[in-house]
Amino acid sequence: MGIGSQVTAPPPGPALAEHPAIPLLDYDRVAGTVENGSAPGSMLLVHGFGGGKQQLRELGDALCPAGSEAFYPVLRAHGTSPKPAWGYSVLDFAADVHRIADVLPERVDAVGYSYGALVSAVSAVTWGAARIRSLVVIDQSFEAHPERHEADEWVEGSLLRWHYDFSHLLDVLHGLGVPVLVLGSPDSGVIGTDEEERLLARRDALFDYRRITGSHAECYRDTEVLVPLMDEFYRTKVAGT
């Protein structure tokens, strides 16, 4: 080995990986490359149900600054992550992310799309502002909608999601001092008119709601629209927190 040569050790994995009886989520960690990236630092980006770790990759690549990292966990029952026979409450999904949280930097800015936004919100409430600096929600309702419940192969997760109201999570995050941006598309129908009015009424120094466009399956792809909205949020509500 020549003078000045360096051996770069791989980044450490989760501490629980030393216990093979505990199944852990698959995840990617990607170095940020954006000079003067609009995110304040490292990011945690959580995909929606039926998605994967590539779902928010374009968004993360556009926002994560050089010197930071973007983390993309793969939710249970997706990709190569564990698929238990039961355990599909949002609390189970959030606990999975918690089990690998020691690979994250001390503070991250969380971004969640669809069901991943609910998982991210529960994680932020659990970990607090010392670990989650901010949360961006992309097209996810926090209110109960029993009519959306489907008794299919995901009956447990569907029932535990749609029969329960999670809007109090936004109250808790506000109390913790975690800035939140909700991006909702009227085209998707996920956030109804009444809920949108309630979200607009929450707007203050720590909370904002902005409209985006496109179907639920497509709205997260519009990076040209999302990035400026998130950049403004990071500059006006997150900077200095």
Automatic annotation (TrEMBL):
Gene3D superfamilies: alpha/beta hydrolase. Pfam families: Abhydrolase_1. Keywords: Hydrolase. InterPro entries: AB_hydrolase_1, AB_hydrolase_fold. The keyword Hydrolase applies. GO terms for molecular function: hydrolase activity. Residues 43-158 form the AB hydrolase-1 domain. It comes from the Bacteria. The keyword DNA repair does not apply. This is Alpha/beta hydrolase fold.
